[in-house]
Design a protein that fits this description.
homodimer; 311 residues; alpha/beta; 3 domains; five-stranded parallel sheet; DNA-binding
DNA sequence: TTACTATTTTTGTCTAGGACAATATTATGA
DNA sequence: TCATAATATTGTCCTAGACAAAAATAGTAA
């Protein structure tokens, strides 16, 4: 019925796709795409179809493809690439297709119940590594192949968030060590990775202080001080430019006192080449567990510091 | 100890403050602030102190002040303005200072318990209108006066989120009417307003499908279709430019079929002057309750539509 | 072949200065 | 006092060029 053709201005496209204005303009010149229409003021006006294609391109780029290979391509050529994506080789529990079906059937409540059941059946650690992680990948890949829509992904994220939050709430207990501040830097708005990290850390008895996403760097310092945390954990998704990850970590490291450890994890960190000085980079979630154990061993005692001659 | 002077590039400042690059450059020329240092490549390098001041200015602007009156001002002059902010005249339950104290004492767990208790004492409706809403305002004002830090606000948001989510989970039941899709548009990342709306709507027996924040406009349409919702609710915070609210609503309205109602709420909507065609604008949360009642009255029957001659 | 280094290409973001419509403010008249 | 017209403010858009960081490629040695 109402099928007005939606057009986006360049700021709208930036918001919808996550691709910066500068990049959009320079792509237009370099690759000949996207070439938007212009309004009477000669300003760019992107039709729906170009925005859709851009969203697709963004995902491919986040997955390691290079612009020169994908930005110029037609939709047909893109599809050829999409099926040549890295196969899912990780081990996982057998019921993933069942979850996918629930997602695509838009059964929010049923999905949540199924996830909770899986959690209780497998236990948190296995649930995260053999259900959630592979499921995340599967959902992402489905999206790429055009088999799943963004809103379905959103609904799925919501349900996982619920299940994890509930579980974490049961694990939470003040006084555990180490005490860990959890957040993301401005620009990183993905909660899921952070939440999975919190679940893992809470499970091995750490005391997590969750600040949510996008805490300004300058706020992390007083937060760490106020909560007297031993460690600050930052999460980075694949959608964030590597350069931003690097500079963000360096800034945070410089701002924080030396005695507070800085750990970084998530898909965005995996893309980093070299190490970052003073920052512990985490790969899979199991790295966190190991790091906590290592921290406990290195840590002198249950107390805060070594008081010579005491007792 | 580690007190390296942190410097931000212009993109970093945009992320940290929410002020666009273009605005930063043009302010520099027009108001003489912020005038950042330059690196060897002549690129802007903003010192910590300027970023702090910018964050302050951003809040003032979100509260209705105009750039010409605040951007040029010194920190001392700013403080004079800050205390002249609109007084909190709304009625509220008496225990707000208690909550504030918990927030500033960084007692996350205790705060959550106190909030839960208030919820059960007052009931959801009163809890939202007489505790949460005024508390939000109070927290915002405290921040303005420099009495509260961003990370404290973050921690507070996390706790409210928990309490509300838990409560909503208890209210959720499939099959209720109307069925409502809840989300925000890209660019709006504040969850709290959306969550408060969901709580209100769930309370009056609506069936809410929560998609989380930042759903692309083009995804809202298939989502509404897949979930067969009667209404789409969008939430806008005060931090979003009015122009963005307007164009976003118009785009969404054009994209959605006519039979799906579009409701918009939040502080960002309150700043709108005129109406937006085909969109129902909500002021306080109580508007939502009234709107649901009105919808039920206008709605022909528990069924989906009028089928003439059926039965 | 593999492994390391040097060169070239790719790519996003920065710079400057100008333009303009949408909004807010002030002036003017009924 | 209220509505309308004139003026000022303000964010975002435009073009076009420059450059460093990252990736790809070529070159060289083991």
């Amino acid at each position: 019925m109402t099928k007005a053709k939606i057009k986006f201005d360049i700021a709208g496209v930036e918001r919808e796709t996550g691709i910066g204005k500068d990049a959009l303009r320079v792509w237009e010149k370099r690759y000949g795409f996207p070439v938007p229409e212009r309004d009477e003021r000669e300003e760019r006006l992107y039709p729906q179809e170009q925005v859709d294609r851009l969203r697709l391109i963004k995902r491919l780029l986040d997955n390691g493809m290079r612009p020169v290979k994908v930005v110029g391509l037609e939709a047909a050529e893109l599809n050829a690439l999409l099926n040549r994506l890295p196969e899912d080789t990780a081990q996982h529990s057998g019921d993933l297709p069942g979850f996918i079906e629930l997602i695509k059937g838009h059964q929010a409540a049923a999905l949540r119940v199924a996830l909770s059941r899986a959690l209780l059946q497998q236990g948190m650690e296995e649930f995260l590594s053999k259900t959630i992680s592979p499921l995340n990948r599967l959902v992402g890949e489905s999206w790429m192949r055009g088999e799943m829509r963004v809103f379905e992904e959103h609904l799925y994220s919501e349900q996982i968030t619920h299940v994890l939050r509930d579980a974490i709430a049961m694990l939470r207990h003040p006084g555990y060590t180490p005490k860990i501040l959890m957040t993301t830097l401005p620009g990183e708005e993905h909660t899921l990775g952070l939440l999975m990290a919190e679940a893992t850390l809470s499970l091995c008895g750490a005391h997590c202080v969750m600040l949510g996403v996008q805490t300004p760097i300058q706020e992390i310092v007083p937060a760490a001080k106020a909560h007297q945390v031993d460690i600050v954990v930052l999460s980075f998704s694949a959608a964030i430019p590597i350069l931003q990850v690097k500079s963000g970590l360096q800034l945070a490291r410089d701002a924080l006192p030396k005695k507070v450890a800085l750990w970084a994890g998530g898909a965005g960190v995996a893309k980093l080449r070299g190490p970052v000085e003073g920052v512990q980079l985490m790969g899979p979630l199991s790295d966190l567990t190991r790091a906590v154990i290592a921290w406990r061993e290195a840590s002198p005692a249950p107390g805060k510091s070594i008081r010579p001659g005491k007792g």
